[in-house]
Amino acid sequence: MEINEKQENYNYNNNQGMPYKSEKKLAAGILGILLGSLAIHKFYLGYTKAGIIQLILGVVTCGAVGIVGFIEGIIYLTKSDEEFDRTYVQNQKEWF
Questions:
Q1: Is 20 within 8 Å of 81 (Cβ atoms)?
Q2: DSSP state at residue 39
Q3: pLDDT digits (tens, 9 = 90+) for 57-84
């Protein structure tokens, strides 16, 4: 099997032989930055328990916990697709 030049730059998923392309990374990052205090990014990634905790803390602190969502959004967007997929989709890491 011959690999063309464009495919050499991708990190490949060993299970399927396809390039990593995390479909949730961009949306979760933007939701974290814009709606961090509402924990929408947590619910979007399927972290219901962490989302409820962050939502309650956001209400109790009048939104001050939104900085956590903002930081998480930036972290999501700065990770590579492969690293985001491995950390937040496969390993289900809920916080930072």
A1: yes
A2: T
A3: 999 999 899 999 999 999 999 999 999 9
